[in-house]
């Protein structure tokens, strides 16, 4: 037991402490005060303590730390393997039956004392594991989840409360060059997704063999802009405009299909006929039918060698347009942050400061120079030029110079595109939980909402889109179906509760009912009711998931439209 182990260990260390006492007594009695060898007394005692401590580390502390570390690694791997095979996973060690449980009895020993030093075995093991986990986590950040599991197992099995390593969860920062991103802006917007709230770009699919996703945050862009200077932001406007124009031309080319245009024109005629009668918005079921019709149209048209569907080829340019706009917004946010930080270094009253310096140095040129520098450092958010509005005007001028008859009813495609985006978003989130990534893997894609808001602003179709009431119709549809499913689930649960109550009230089975087959019929009815209840709950979860995705799209698009309307000029 723990008490026996401690007693024996402490007796051994006490035996090692006896020579130290005799050495100190001999030197104290034989060496007179003021003798040169008097200082060696403490030196000999210190060396003896170091010798005992080294022996204790070599024979007890280090082997114990290594054995516990090995056990934690094996336990973590066993838990992962069991979760993959569907087993029970790792079972906590029992100190009475498992040999590994003896380690805990050693860890629970009181601190050991020897030669005036105190050694806490549990604290030594804890420091070793924290140091080891931190070192290996910095080398392989993708294994941070593994070391988190090992910390949890150490607390459950050995009672070791290990501190977190303080590192970001599987992430690290390295230099990001915005100039290189701008030079390859077409590749960048196609490989990264935009998070509007955090202003972070996340890689859509990791590179082959990589164990982590690359991301570009606002902090990384700030560092790069500070390195290159604020002039790079003005240069980025033309490059992003060229990227937007390419995507808009690709979108216009797809919309130039006569079959697609006739299909959308048919929807326009139906909507015009129904808006003044009973329909208050564009129905969700109608949009689903439109998605199916576009799918049939895509199956009939094999002119494009791409394996992507027509809606996918329509959705991708919209998303890439939003990603490009998001990058411009991130650049402007970086500029605002840098100007705000620089303005803290400028004097509160630049005019007075420049006059005093000019009077002191008797140089009017010095005061003028300080005035110009302070004016350049001054940060005024209201005076910032809106690059988003500039890009809207630039692409609007480009669109006016081309044939717009094919894009004048683009807003009627938005419901079908929203449904396609919802399906792609759910597939991307589901792929996050798989090891073999066969398609794009992402959990956020605000670029699509940003691109939709930008396109309807460029085409001047904001009012038409609001009039069809798409998101209001979606909200009413989900609310109506949600209430219906809740009613079905409530009634089925009531039936099931009544059936269970009737079974409990009947203590003796009826032989006649078994003979007549009524018992089998009752069992079949209960099974059917259970299937209906399970089906209703599955539909409810699916409906809730779709509603959450649509709400995410609605709020992202609403925020993007506010950004595009806000013109600080």
Describe the structure.
- With 569 residues, the protein is mainly α.
- It folds into two domains: 2-157, no CATH class; 178-344 and 383-472, no CATH class.
- The chain has 21 helices and five strands.
- The strands form two sheets. A three-stranded antiparallel β-sheet has the order 3-4-5.
- β1 (112-114) and β2 (117-119) form a beta hairpin.
- α17 packs across α21.
- The model has no long low-confidence stretch (mean pLDDT 79).
- Residues 371-564 form the WASH complex subunit 7 C-terminal domain.
- One of its GO terms (biological process) is endosomal transport.
- Residues 26-341 form the WASH complex subunit 7 central domain.
Please tell me how large the radius of gyration is. 36 Å
Contiguous uncertain segments of 5+ residues: none
Task: Describe the sheet with the most strands.
Answer: 3 strands, antiparallel
Number of strands: 5
Number of H- or I-type helical stretches: 21
The total domain count is: 2
Q: What's the mean pLDDT score?
A: 79
Q: Order of strands across the biggest sheet?
A: 3-4-5
Helix and strand sequence: HHHEEHHHHEEEHHHHHHHHHHHHHH
How far is the first residue's CA from the last residue's CA? 78 Å
SS class: mainly alpha
- Percent range of helical residues: over 70%
């Amino acid at each position: 037991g723990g008490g026996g182990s401690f007693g024996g260990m402490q007796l051994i260390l006490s035996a090692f402490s006896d020579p130290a006492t005799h050495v100190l007594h001999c030197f104290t009695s034989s060496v007179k005060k003021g003798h040169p060898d008097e200082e060696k007394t403490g030196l000999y005692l210190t060396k003896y303590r170091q010798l005992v401590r080294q022996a204790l580390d070599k024979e007890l502390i280090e082997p114990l730390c290594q054995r516990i570390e090995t056990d934690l690694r094996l336990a973590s791997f066993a838990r992962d393997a069991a979760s993959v095979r569907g087993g029970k996973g790792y079972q906590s060690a029992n100190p009475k039956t498992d040999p590994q449980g003896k380690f805990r009895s050693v860890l629970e020993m009181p601190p050991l004392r020897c030669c005036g030093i105190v050694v806490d075995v549990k604290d030594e093991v804890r420091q070793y594991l924290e140091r080891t986990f931190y070192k290996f986590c910095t080398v392989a950040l993708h294994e941070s989840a593994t070391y988190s599991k090992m910390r949890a197992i150490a607390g459950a099995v050995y009672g070791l409360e290990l501190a977190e390593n303080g590192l970001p969860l599987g992430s690290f920062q390295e230099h990001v060059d915005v100039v290189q991103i701008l030079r390859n802006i077409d590749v960048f917007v196609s490989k990264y997704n935009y998070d509007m709230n955090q202003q972070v770009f996340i890689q859509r699919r990791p590179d082959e063999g990589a164990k982590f996703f690359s991301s570009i945050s606002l902090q990384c862009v700030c560092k790069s802009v500070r390195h290159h200077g604020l002039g790079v932001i003005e240069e980025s406007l033309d490059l992003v405009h060229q990227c937007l124009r390419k995507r808009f031309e690709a979108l216009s080319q797809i919309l130039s299909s006569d079959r697609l245009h006739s299909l959308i024109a048919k929807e326009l005629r139906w909507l015009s006929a129904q808006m003044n009668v009973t329909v208050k918005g564009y129905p969700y079921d109608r949009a689903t039918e439109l998605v199916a019709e576009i799918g049939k149209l895509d199956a009939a048209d094999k002119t494009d060698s791409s394996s992507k569907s027509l809606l996918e080829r329509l959705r991708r340019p919209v998303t890439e347009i939003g990603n490009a706009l998001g990058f411009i917004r991130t650049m402007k946010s970086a500029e605002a942050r840098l100007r705000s930080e620089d303005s803290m270094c400028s004097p509160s009253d630049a005019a007075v400061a420049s006059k005093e310096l000019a009077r002191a140095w008797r140089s009017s040129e010095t005061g003028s120079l300080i005035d110009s520098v302070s004016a350049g450092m001054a940060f005024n958010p209201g005076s910032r030029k809106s690059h988003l509005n500039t890009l809207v005007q630039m692409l609007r001028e480009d669109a006016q110079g081309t044939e717009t008859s094919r894009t004048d009813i683009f807003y009627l495609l938005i419901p079908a595109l929203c449904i396609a985006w919802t399906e792609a978003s759910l597939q991307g989130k589901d792929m996050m939980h798989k090891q073999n990534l066969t398609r794009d893997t992402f959990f956020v894609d605000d670029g699509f909402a940003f691109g939709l808001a930008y396109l309807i602003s460029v085409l001047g179709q904001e009012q038409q889109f609001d009039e069809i009431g798409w998101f209001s119709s979606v909200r009413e549809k989900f609310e109506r179906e949600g209430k219906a499913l809740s009613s079905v689930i409530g009634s089925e649960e009531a039936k099931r509760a009544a059936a269970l109550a009737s079974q409990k009230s009947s203590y003796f089975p009826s032989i006649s009912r078994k003979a007549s087959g009524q018992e089998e019929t009752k069992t079949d009815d209960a099974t059917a009711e259970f299937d209906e209840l399970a089906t209703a709950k599955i539909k409810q979860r699916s409906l809730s998931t779709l509603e959450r995705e649509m709400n995410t799209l609605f709020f992202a698009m609403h925020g993007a439209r506010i950004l595009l309307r806000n013109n600080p000029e």
